[in-house]
Amino acid sequence: MGLLQEAIFGVVTGSYIAIAAIGFTLIYGIVNMINFAYGEYLTLGAFVGFFAANALPGPLPVAVVAAMLGGGVISIALARGFFTPINHTGPVPMLLTSIGLGIAVRNAIRLFGGRSARYIDTETATFRFDAVPEVPIGSVDLLGGFFLTSEHLTVVGSAVAVFLVVHLLLTRTDVGIAMRAMGDDESLARVRGIDTQLIRDSVWVLAGVLAGLAGVLMAIQTNVSSTTGYSHILQILSAAILGGAGSPYGAIIGAYVIGLALAISTAFLPSSMTGLSSAVAFAILIAVLLVKPSGIAGTEVREA
Amino acid sequence: MVGSVFNTRCTGSSIGMSPDTNRRANRRTFLTLAGSGGMVGLAGCVSFGGGEGSGDDGSGDGSSDDGSGDGSSGDDGSGDGSSDDGSSDGGGGPDTIALGQPASLSGQWDFLQPGVSQATDAAVAHINEAGGPLDAELEVVRRDTAVDPQEARTVTTQLIENDGVAGIVGLYSSEINPLWDFLQDFEVPIVTPWPGSTFLDTRGGDKGTPEDLSDDEWIWRTVVGDTVHTSGSAVYALENDLDTLGVINGTTEGERSYVEGFLEVYENNGGTVAERVEVELGNSSYQSALSRLFDADFDAFLVSLPQESAITALNDWSDGGYGRQPILSDPLAQQAIIDQVGSDIHGAWAGSPGQSGPSYDTFEEAYSGQDGDAEINAWTPPAWDALMVTALAIERAGEASPEAIQRNLGPVSRSGGTVVHTFAEGKEALANGEEITYEGAATPVNFTQHGNVFGSVTISTAGENGFESTSEVPAEDIREYVAEGEY
């Protein structure tokens, strides 16, 4: 298959990561903490989606909406319980708390959620485009026939919708403008009359909604288990840092760079090295940070 | 909501500054609670595998009420696995004898454990109904390792040092291989139904000298190694004119070992590998790897991945319409694969260790009479055999010390004695002063000098009714590909 097909696979993988990375980076930029428990938010969203798909009447989108709502509620509940009381302690205590919370939540899911992977039943349609002409350059075919599945379209479509909504939120609403103000300077924002706690809560809810969506999309593609989100947290973290920590737009770019790097390195690495595709993605991350420490989007890195 | 973002409350300044909500009292209270909760949570993570004992009723109640099931309530608790001094000097025998079972109660291999647990419980019930080894009650203390080497290290130490077990009846390749020296230092026999790794082909057993412990390595396995059943699978593939192969496998020890074993026989006997792709586990998609793999021209493709990753990969394979003949590693011959992938997977086959040893019917009858409805898999009959042969070794030894068990595992299994198929038959024969040869449910359990067993390979094919046995590669056909002394 050609490079076009590999690019499609990369865009799909990048879309999963991008949805989650936006939530992760908003927390970083506005609450000023690296939330290592964020993978568990995805897992909990996936579980909510799984139970909703089995318990609620109606099509799968109903379960997706339930996962998003559930993700938002869980996120604000965990924030209120564990992070809000230590907002003033700085990024390091909050980071350590998030690591501990992640371990505790992951193991609680293992204990109470059962040990077997669960699957959300879906029907997948495949659309083939075999008439696309080949454009070979050396041994690489730039175009050539390709296929898309309904799952691919759903994931990419969801990601595009999320990008639009987040963009409109950040640029056209008072809440979004206040979020950006807090991201720039929290003290100044508070002096200017912004209710910073309300904005933090809004960020937690938004990040939870995005985690719920990413989690249920991953569950549809793979399965629901205690490690659904945890197994992707490094990719999410890397996308956020690569793009410029704290910048949602940078996170989107970072996610697609990582997705494409994973797909293309799997396709073109020597046979004995195909298991190292993640290492290639992280090598790109390191290289970019060496050249431009603030990330692709150039956002100023905060003290965390 | 939008209107409430900006706080307009006057605070004595001309600027409406919102309150700083961080309060010291809340912080202290929170840190106290979070610290306590964190310690409890982390403690729960560290010792996640609480003991789950298996008593004579097989209901998992054989442990003490704290979950430790120590099996060593006797006078010294010195780790001989019995409740007194472990000797059987005329009426002074132990009341209970404990064996330890590290188990995959969680983790990516947990779907295989229910069958092994049920077989273990059935064996314990059967042994105790027959009077038990040395007329003592046999207990199995089961603890979760999640097939994690570090957790296995902790659990094995707990079982031997705290629970005082006389022997271990578990542990996977992924745990044994990295912990090899650590496990040898305990000098406690490990009779396990799990490991297929080629690493153990020439490691383990009594080296053919049961009385001399100096050259012993303390691992025995009652399941045929990967070398045997991958050889059987490779032979079957070649016999069916599948001469060119694509391979997709995970990067962990178990998956690589399976593929290496398969390819050694396959390539040495005329087969060709057109493409091989290694993938990381737990990915959300394997489309790129499949795309690369199926660019090559081959007759069949071999899949060696854990079940969850395999389902994702095979769903991607089905969505992509790649076709061709799938060959699955033996852990993948599970109903869940067919349920999740659908009819496209029909016709896929897997070569698994044979499940039809000389005493299979006895095992199956006891297994079906046990509580539980776990599916029998390739490791279920070997779990029964592990308990039987260990209990018979204790009975022959007349004591329940690790050294005595190690010395007697070979003699009760190798040919030359009265053939027995159950613990009850063996106990009776030993009482009559006869030597015995245990023939098991999975294989004849004729331990090689390296503590391995040899057997046939069953080919199971996916269809409407699940994976059904469709062919058998006899042990003697495979033996010609596996040299004596090298297994």
Automatic annotation (TrEMBL), chain A:
GO terms for molecular function: L-isoleucine transmembrane transporter activity; L-leucine transmembrane transporter activity; L-phenylalanine transmembrane transporter activity; L-valine transmembrane transporter activity. It is found in: Cell membrane. Keywords: Amino-acid transport, Cell inner membrane, Cell membrane, Membrane, Transmembrane, Transmembrane helix, Transport. One of its GO terms (biological process) is L-alanine transport. This is Neutral amino acid transport system permease protein. The lineage of its organism: Archaea, Methanobacteriati, Methanobacteriota, Stenosarchaea group, Halobacteria. It is a multi-pass membrane protein. The keyword DNA-binding does not apply. Pfam families: BPD_transp_2 (PF02653). InterPro entries: ABC_transp_permease, BCAA_transport_permease. One of its GO terms (cellular component) is plasma membrane. Belongs to the binding-protein-dependent transport system permease family. LivHM subfamily. The chain crosses the membrane at residues 6-31, 38-56, 62-83, 152-170, 202-221, 233-262, 274-291.
UniProtKB/TrEMBL annotation, chain B:
It comes from the Archaea. It holds the Pfam family Peripla_BP_6. Residues 96-408 form the Leucine-binding protein domain. Residues 54-68 have a biased composition (Acidic residues). Residues 1-23, 51-102 are annotated as: Disordered. Residues 69-80 have a biased composition (Gly residues). Keywords: Signal. InterPro entries: BCAA_transport (IPR051010), Leu-bd (IPR028081), Peripla_BP_I (IPR028082). Residues 1-20 have a biased composition (Polar residues). This is Branched-chain amino acid transport system substrate-binding protein.
